[in-house]
Amino acid sequence: MGEFKKLVFSGVQPTGNLHLGNYLGAIRKFVALQDGNDCMYCVVDLHSITAQLVHPDLKAQTRSIAAAFIASGIDAEKHVVFNQAAVPQHAELAWVFNCVARIGWMMRMTQFKDKAGKDRENASLGLLAYPSLMAADILVYRGTHVPVGDDQKQHLELARDIAMKFNLDYADRIREAGLGTDITVGDEPVHAYFPMVEPLIDGPAPRVMSLRDGTKKMSKSDPSDLSRINLMDDPDSIAKKIRKAKTDPEGLPSEIEGLKGRPEADNLVGIYAALSDKTKADVLQEFGGRQFSDFKPALVDLAVNHLAPITSEMRRLMDDTAHIDAILRKGGERARERAEAVMKDVRDIVGFLS
Questions:
Q1: Residues 6 or more apart in contact with residue 36 via CB below 8 angstroms
Q2: Which one of 153, 217, 246, 278 is the catalytic residue?
Q3: Is 220 a catalytic residue?
Q4: Is 260 one of the annotated active-site residues of the chain?
């Protein structure tokens, strides 16, 4: 990364209830990344209106994500926890990036194709430009590393393309202003203002699937609440959902190979492994040859013991909205200060009078 200071950035949309997949796949990793890294964790409320314009209570959903961050162990004093809309520089840089990016780049985004469906002309412009705003979210702080799932890797590659084009298009002005850093991209030397963002893929990032269909991801939008474990579920609800989770008639295998072609079994073993910080092989060594009637109660106990303290703290925080709002307000102030320093440079590089 040349001389760019390492900065980890990530965000979560405030849409619907957070579930076990969000926690294991993202938030728990955010917590781990705090050690030894400068981190910024954002509730990306601007993104939430790209696909659904009107939300029943966007403020409450925003607070819920912030509460989940804090309850899971993110230190809002040491790191920055804030909501995107509180930092107008995100949208300002996104406009510059809209002019840097090419429409063809946006049209190739798989997530846009999936969400827009066949009637793309009726999709919002925001949905099409979503990846440009995501690039601005990261680069308005000159973020260097982002923990990403499979569904966001393409967007991160686009963020790199946008940063590279900006750096090349404005290379002379960046150098004249003395604002750049000499880096190498591939074999090409670049005097860059924005870093080439790197994905953080260290460690396991379990792909948690639906409890009703092991071939589909656990999702907030699934019409069946039995398909997911929500972070706000009480112990009885967690137990009920795991007991009712779809399985097959066979017992648990002793080797990982035995999970092939058995998506529901593989999912439950994966959840147990993630919650216990073990490998699937470790779990099968303990439970191999036993029936799901033995395994599910153990999974219930593990899930409840792990999630109950988080749920309890989330409920406490959600009952004290003034406290959550104060955390977000302070985080927003810290984020705006950082973002404005970058935007001051960008305005100078582009040539805006300000």
A1: none
A2: 217
A3: yes
A4: no
pLDDT surpassing 50 at residue 309: yes
Residues 184-242 pLDDT 10s: 887 888 899 999 999 887 555 578 999 999 999 998 888 999 999 999 999 999 999 99
Looking at 115, 153, 165, 278, which residue is catalytic? 115
Q: What are phi and psi of 306, to 5 degrees?
A: -80, -45
Query: Which residue among 153, 165, 220, 330 is the active-site one?
Result: 220
Report how far apart the first and last C-alpha atoms of the chain are (Å, whole number): 30
Tens of pLDDT, residue by residue over 29-73, are 999 999 999 999 999 999 999 878 888 899 999 999 999 999 999
CA distance 5 to 287: 46
Q: What is the pLDDT of residue 1?
A: 44
User: Is-catalytic flag, 240?
Assistant: no
The residue with tokens 């100078």 is: 348
Strand partners, 230: 19
Query: Residue 213: CB partners within 8 Å, gap ≥ 6?
Result: 227, 246, 263, 264
Closest of 339, 1, 330, 334 to residue 137, by C-alpha = 339
Phi and psi for 97 in degrees, rounded to 5?
Answer: -70, -30
- pTM here is 0.90
